[in-house]
Amino acid sequence: MGGDLICRLLALIICLSACAGIGLELSTLMNGGASIFGSLWVLMGYFTILTNGLVAVVFGAAAFLGERFDHPRLVAGVAAVMALVGVIFALLLQGLRTLAGATAEANFLLHQLNPVLVVLFWLLFTRKGTLSWRDPLLWALYPLAYALARGAAEGKYAYPFIDVSANGWVGAMSNAVVIALGFVVAAEALVLIDRMLARR
Rounded to an integer, what distance in angstroms lies between the CA atom of residue 91 and that of residue 110? Predict the structure, then answer.
């Protein structure tokens, strides 16, 4: 990974953007009367929040360590999952809620800006030629595990397309599998791009 100033600055911007988006969502819940622990528990039920939390940690480390942070598979995996966040929002979630104020700002950062910035960072600054065709299968375990584990634990689902009570187990699992397959196909394309850029 390039250790120059622009690389570290972009990593810092991405980290702060993820933190700001999560912070805005947290403050909105707490302003509504929820406790900090209750608010954190609610937010941890959302794939978007968990993934942006991962982004904050990874890119905070990249900004702090610079070229010593040399984990191209990790950054590529995070980029693939963040791209999934952006695509799922655009195709399945956009317009389901009326957003305003801090919630609208958080939504923009977490669902729209950060996926673009993370993928851009991977394209511009991450060392290429390290990915294998098996990596997307490993990356897909994260969204698959999330899809049903939290909802099954407490009987509530953050997203309507994986809601077992509304879709049944077959419908919810089918939706999760379709999304996972689409993710793997897109992530394999990322591996192909990685190899093409490495050859150049």
Answer: 15
